[in-house]
Amino acid sequence: MPSFDVVSEINEHELNNAIDQANRDIDARYDFKGADARIERAEWELTLHAKTEFQIEQMSTILYQKLAKRGIDIRSLKADAVQTANLKASQKITVRHGIESELAKKIVKLVKDAKLKVQAQIQGEQVRVTGKKRDDLQEAIAMLRATEQIDMPLQFTNFRD
Fold first, then answer.
1. pTM
2. Do the beta carbons of residue 158 and residue 5 sit within 8 Å?
3. Could you tell me if 131 and 137 are in contact, meaning their C-beta atoms sit under 8 angstroms apart?
4. 159: phi then psi, degrees, rounded to nearest 5
């Protein structure tokens, strides 16, 4: 039976490269001299450090540009508010990967509401969509790409006939 998986994955290698490039750009900029501005990564959480909130905003713009150039969708980032204390500012940015259960339920509901001849089921951090015809699966992919209700980047993998 033809099927495909709906996933939301981030290429970790490209994420690391984008962070490294952003840090190099920040080090080279004149307005960041002596500011101890940097971007740190711990698993799927990025932390931006600088002296002022304005510098944090500048750094996040640089980071977003580098991520976009590397093919990482900005919608997968969730930024917290900027924290300021003792003449230092920081901001945490969470890199969302995988499909959470709420989003998976939403995807299954969207597929069912579309009245296509396919079935969707949640399998961990992905959603498997199966159908009898390849054309029905392609309609489901087109519908999921076109929807505005999903705020995460989706990839469609493991397409089988």
1. 0.80
2. yes
3. yes
4. -70, 120
30, 90, 92, 15: which is closest to 56 by C-alpha?
Answer: 90
Can you count the helices (H) and strands (E) in the chain? Answer: 4, 9
Q: Exposed, middle or buried, 15 (CB in 10 Å: 0-12/13-18/19+)?
A: buried
Residue type, 137: L
Task: Report pLDDT for 13.
Answer: 93
The two tokens of residue 49 are: 């450090």
- CA dist 44 and 97 (Å) reads 8
pLDDT of residue 39: 92
> Which residues lie across from 7 on neighbouring strands?
155
Low-confidence ranges of the chain (pLDDT < 50): none
Q: pLDDT tens, 93-122?
A: 999 888 888 888 888 888 888 888 888 888
Closest CA to 80 of 90, 88, 66, 71: 90
